[in-house]
């Protein structure tokens, strides 16, 4: 390689997609966050998985358009140093503008935490700054459910030629990650996961089945499966 042509200095690369915590030094304790409307703030836990080096943790929130926001939520501290192997917290606090959000349904935002590695003392080193991004759901006090309540069983599936029109009559977001024809059938690799907004319908491309089963993601990151029975093209959830 001709050194007169190529001279690589220190390069900082930021991945703006979700970074798997298994490869990140700064690890987050969850894959999604729920902000109950009756709470003044919530706390997310982070840990520096690197046992030798300190890392900076930079955090912020975005709206659905991917724009950084400081209202109706704030993250504190926005930047902090986490020593090797240590744990820390990031607090998310609502502002006065929270009242401008709909109070009859959830709203979604995105929480980001980016790790910033210490500057290397070696020349020509490529440093990677990994970023974790998760959904933050604001759940107004008026729709906070009782413990262990499910709402995926309120979904209605309407068969169409190339999939289903999915009705979500609930005030909650539904994260649908698969539709299969049997309870233990593996999820199809080409199924495109969708997030269905509260009180809305969304077309989902999929194979159709005589008895469909859906898999969703719940508040805790679990992936429950639920069977449906159909009359004609309209399918409703089995009793649970």
From TrEMBL:
Residues 26-143 form the Pili assembly chaperone N-terminal domain. GO terms for biological process: cell wall organization. The keyword Isomerase does not apply. Keywords: Chaperone, Fimbrium biogenesis, Immunoglobulin domain, Periplasm, Signal. GO terms for cellular component: outer membrane-bounded periplasmic space. Residues 166-222 form the Pili assembly chaperone C-terminal domain. This is Fimbria/pilus periplasmic chaperone.
């Amino acid at each position: 390689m001709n050194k007169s042509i190529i001279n690589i200095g220190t390069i900082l690369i930021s991945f703006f997609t979700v970074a798997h915590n298994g490869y990140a030094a700064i690890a987050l304790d969850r894959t999604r966050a729920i902000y109950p409307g009756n709470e003044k703030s919530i706390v997310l836990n982070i840990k520096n998985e690197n046992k030798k080096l300190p890392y900076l943790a930079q955090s912020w929130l975005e709206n659905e358009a991917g724009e950084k926001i400081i209202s109706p939520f704030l993250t504190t501290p926005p930047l902090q140093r986490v020593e090797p192997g240590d744990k820390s917290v990031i607090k998310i606090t609502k502002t006065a503008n929270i009242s401008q959000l709909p109070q009859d349904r959830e709203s979604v935002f995105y929480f980001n935490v980016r790790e910033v590695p210490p500057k290397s003392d070696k020349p020509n080193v490529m440093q990677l700054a990994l970023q974790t991004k998760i959904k933050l759901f604001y759940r107004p006090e008026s729709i906070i459910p009782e413990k262990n309540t499910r709402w995926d069983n309120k979904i209605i599936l309407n068969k169409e030629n190339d999939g289903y029109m999915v009705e979500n009559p609930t005030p909650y977001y539904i994260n649908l990650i698969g539709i299969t024809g049997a309870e233990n059938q593996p999820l199809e690799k080409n199924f495109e996961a969708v997030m269905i907004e509260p009180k809305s319908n969304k077309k989902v491309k999929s194979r159709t089945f005589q008895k469909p089963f859906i898999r969703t993601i719940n508040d805790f990151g679990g992936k429950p499966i639920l069977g449906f029975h159909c009359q004609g093209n309209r399918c409703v959830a089995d009793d649970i």
